Amino acid sequence: MNAKERKRPPKVEEWRGVGSLGTIGLEIVLSIAFGFFGGRWLDGKFGTEPYLSVLGFFFGCGAAVKAFLRASREMKAQAEREEREQGNPRPRYDTPDERKDEPPITKADDEGEGRGGG
Fold first, then answer.
1. What is the DSSP string of 4-58?
2. Integer CA distances (angstroms), 5 to 8, 9, 14, 109, in order
3. Cα gap 118→106, rounded to integer Å
4. Within 13 Å and on the Cβ side, how many CA atoms surround 96?
5. Which one is predicted more confidently, 112 or 25?
6. Percent helix, strand, coil in the chain (nearest 5)?
7. 66 backbone dihedrals φ, ψ, rounded to 5°
8. Burial class (CB in 10 A: 0-12, 13-18, 19+), 86
9. pLDDT tens digits, one per residue of 55-75
10. In terms of pTM, does the model score above 0.70?
């Protein structure tokens, strides 16, 4: 069995998703800050006062958008992969009209028995 065939425990996968979602905010802030302060530093060197700061800010914003789109693609791919591997689970919460007609969800329902699942 090689490393690709081994599966991580479910908790590790959950925290991995949370970690990648949590770092996107930091990545956005740092991209914009580096762009702005890099432009400000260059303004001081070349004497082009607000222009390179503004340009750096916009480049930082572009890098932040690119980072956000990359993270969104990765999360979508991960969700699709999990759906292929685990299937598409039944929604836990139905509409109020559906809840009136059906008995409450039990442990057996969650395991795929009853209510037509499985």
1. TT----HHHHHHHHHHHHHHHHHHHHHHHHHHHHHHHHHHHHHT-HHHHHHHHHH
2. 10, 13, 19, 30
3. 14
4. 0
5. 25
6. 70, 0, 30
7. -65, -40
8. exposed
9. 999 999 999 999 999 988 988
10. no
| Residues 6 or more apart whose Cβ sits within 8 Å of residue 57 | 32, 35, 36, 39
Question: Hey, what amino acid is at 66?
Answer: K
Give percent above pLDDT 90 in the chain: 39
Tokens 């007609």 belong to residue: 101
CA–CA gap between residue 72 and residue 79 (Å, rounded): 10
Q: Which residue has the higher pLDDT, 49 or 14?
A: 49
Burial of 27 (0-12, 13-18, 19+ CB in 10 A): middle
